[in-house]
Amino acid sequence: MKRRIITIIIALAASLTVQAQGLVFGTVQDAFLKTPLPEAKVSLLLAADSTVIIDSIPVTKKFRDDGTVREAQFMLQPEKKTCKYLLRGTLDGYEDGYLPLTIEASEGRALMLDDALELRKIRQVNLQEVTVTATKVKMYYRGDARFLLTAGRLTSCNSARALSCAATRRC
Question: Of 45, 106, 100, 56, which Cα lies nearest the Cα of 78?
């Protein structure tokens, strides 16, 4: 009976070790504020051609004693043992963030990433009012010469450069 229990315990420990091999742990955070982003979606891509290997890796929340989110952590197990990957994080209102990941065949243990996958907020500018003004440009040809009349100012334009210069009023 004791022998059977010991065998079961050893088998369970071996299976847990096999399952823990090749696991990669990482965190997702805001690039500026360094706050965790548990709503983010993480994907694993091949670095060579950006082929999606694993999509929508679940991000779990780790809480502090006061109930606030301490960390947004993800866990994945890549299929290949030696390969270069990209981790991509996406979240509405943020630019996609990328983090390179290289896994070596000799790494059979769980790997905790040193750098967090950081997402930057998208800058949005809300304009209150936009005013667009237009100026009618009149061009006169007299023989070989071209003349441009803008805002009551007559400018000679004998080349394309002079024409663009006169149009921007930097002559």
Answer: 45
Structure tokens at 154: 């007559």
111-112 and 24-30 as β-strands: parallel, antiparallel, unpaired?
Answer: parallel
DSSP category for residue 47 = T
CA 104/CA 94 separation, integer angstroms: 31
**Torsion angle, CA of 42/47/52/55, rounded to 10 degrees?**
-10
CA distance 132 to 58: 47
Q: What is the pLDDT of residues 68-107, one digit of tens each?
A: 889 999 998 887 767 889 999 999 999 999 999 888 766 5
| C-alpha atoms less than 13 angstroms from C-alpha of 97 in its C-beta half-sphere | 25
* Distance separating alpha carbons of residues 62 and 134, to the nearest angstrom: 57
pLDDT at 1: 57
The DSSP annotation for 65-107 comes to: TTSSEEEEEEEE--S-SSEEEEEEEE-TTB--EEEEEEE-TT-
